[in-house]
Amino acid sequence: MNLGIIGLGRLGKLLARAMSRDFKVVVHDTLPLKAEVEKLGAIWGNLAEVANQDIIIPAVPISEFETVIKQLSSLLKPGSIVADVCSVKEYPAEIMQKYLPPHTSILASHPMFGPDSANDSFFGRKLVLCPIRIEDARYQSIKRYLQEQGLTIIETTPAHHDEEISQSLLLTHFIGRGLIEYGATDLQIDTKGYRRLMRILSTVENDTWQLFVDMNRYNRFAVKSRERFLTALTNIDQKVQTPKV
């Protein structure tokens, strides 16, 4: 089985390095990154060469996803699988079904890890899978391989994924970005709880602002989750300020 990866961002690099151990991996990016791709053990190729592989993974920003899928559509060979890795699932599933030809299988996924948490191994990490349009035998084969790598597979629908992720990943990033905006920094006089908050900050600041904005913009549950959290903070602040009778 051969893989194609579009996009050599932080996740793209992680996937290229890991998957090159077991498969031929062809990578394309709009930037001239041939030397970096070869260091990862993968092969540099143009978009058509990537589209000619058995499984194609568009590891691009969510806001660029539709453009890339449109470009891929006419280049895919019959029987190929396109598997996205976006941190939202309803939107990419809709886009893939809209533009990809009927002979292309569609698998929506979300790796619940990144270079900071899975740099050495995927063992024990979570991976969400939403089989959108794929034969069960092919899906089960992919699932078995992923489980053999030590991944914990969570099977769900795009809508359920987006609703829960708005209360976990998105909320975590919102708090982390809030800490950055606040100016939180390491302190000599601190607590274990504060150091845990700083770990959230350090994880979030390695991701791009574009990722943060896209995760919120393309998840229909994000606004409600943020509003609920902000309301809770306001209520707590008001309780602190209210004199005790």
Provide keyphrases for this structure:
single chain; 245 residues; alpha/beta; Rossmann fold; 2 domains; eight-stranded mixed β-sheet; 8 strands; 48% helix; globular
Please give a structural write-up.
By secondary structure, the chain is of the alpha/beta class. It folds into two domains: 2-157, 3-Layer(aba) Sandwich (Rossmann fold), CATH 3.40.50; 166-241, no CATH class. It has helices at 10-19, 34-39, 47-51, 65-73, 90-99, 136-148, 158-165, 169-182, 192-204, 209-217, 222-241, and strands spanning 2-6, 24-28, 43-44, 55-58, 81-84, 105-111, 126-133, 152-155. An eight-stranded mixed β-sheet has the order 3-2-1-4-5-6-7-8, sandwiched between helices. Helix 6 links the parallel strand 7 and strand 8. Helix 4 (65-73) runs parallel beside helix 5 (90-99) and helix 8 (169-182) packs across helix 9 (192-204). The longest helix is centred in the last third of the chain and has 20 residues, at 222-241. The protein is globular.
Provide a count of the helices: 11
| Full CATH superfamily name of the largest domain | NAD(P)-binding Rossmann-like Domain
Class from secondary-structure proportions: alpha/beta
Strand order of the largest sheet: 3-2-1-4-5-6-7-8
Per-chain topology:
Layout: E1 2-6, H1 10-19, E2 24-28, H2 34-39, E3 43-44, H3 47-51, E4 55-58, H4 65-73, E5 81-84, H5 90-99, E6 105-111, E7 126-133, H6 136-148, E8 152-155, H7 158-165, H8 169-182, H9 192-204, H10 209-217, H11 222-241
Parallel strand pairs: 1-2, 1-4, 2-3, 4-5, 5-6, 7-8
Antiparallel strand pairs: 6-7
